[in-house]
């Protein structure tokens, strides 16, 4: 069983190895969100889902992946010990560190990245709220990250008609959806690129966007419908229905 450690601050001065075949793969799991849109006053990561905390489902799927070796969780306020206990129970094979989350998602990612073992050259950033993401998607993203192809993101074709509208609500144009993708996580990075993207302390809704701003090539690979993000009460109902359909239990198997 890998150890779980709680740290009280970020770690600076990480020496980065080159990524390559068989390299360790680390996952940064920002989990400090308040979950206001879910209601209830409980941090989203700790909201009950099929009898266990939502993040427990995420942790089980990380542990079921073939390539993940390291994990850093950015925890909600005052929940570091709780997250460490959950990681030890649901992802015992991963070398895990828990850090205090930041005020924003980007800050949580920076804190987690600073605490990641220097031996890890391939880094996945994964939303804790995408709790049903299949382990196979995690492995598929990690498998194609290289120094030459340094940012890999999963995405799904957009199925709705998309219209650009003006401030007055009038339609400006209908966007051709053929080239559009709804991007998911995990987003995979060659570590030096992710570190450079976060060096300036910028904020963005996803980490690939920070890399894009540097002019780095970002490639999209096929995503998975099960990797949806639990944000609203309807998403929680969908997750519960899928778990019930699959007969998931606290100790059940995880579909790849």
Q: How large is the share of residues in beta strands?
A: 15-25%
CATH homologous superfamily identity: Spore Coat Polysaccharide Biosynthesis Protein SpsA, Chain A
SSE string: EEEEHEHEHEHEEEEEHHEH
Major sheet details: 9 strands, mixed
The CATH class: Alpha Beta
Mean pLDDT: 90
The radius of gyration computed from the alpha-carbon positions, rounded to a whole number of angstroms, is 18 Å
Distance between the termini: 22 Å
Number of domains: 1
CATH topology: Spore Coat Polysaccharide Biosynthesis Protein SpsA, Chain A
Tell me, briefly, the overall form: globular
Percent of residues in helices comes to 25-40%
**Spans with pLDDT under 50 lasting ≥5 residues?**
7-16
Overview of this structure, please?
The protein is α/β, with parallel strands linked by helices. It has a single domain (23-245), classed as Spore Coat Polysaccharide Biosynthesis Protein SpsA, Chain A. It is built from seven helices and 13 strands. The protein has helices at residues 54-64, 80-90, 105-114, 135-143, 191-198, 207-213, 233-245; strands spanning 4-6, 25-30, 48-49, 52-53, 68-75, 95-100, 122-125, 151-157, 162-165, 171-175, 181-183, 187-190, 219-222. The strands form three sheets. Strands 1, 2, 5, 6, 7, 8, 11, 12 and 13 form a nine-stranded mixed beta sheet that branches. Strands 3-4 form a two-stranded antiparallel ribbon. It has a two-stranded antiparallel sheet with strand order 9-10. α5 (191-198) crosses α6. The longest helix has 13 residues, at 233-245. It is globular and about 50 Å long. It starts with a strand and ends in an 11-residue tail after the last helix.
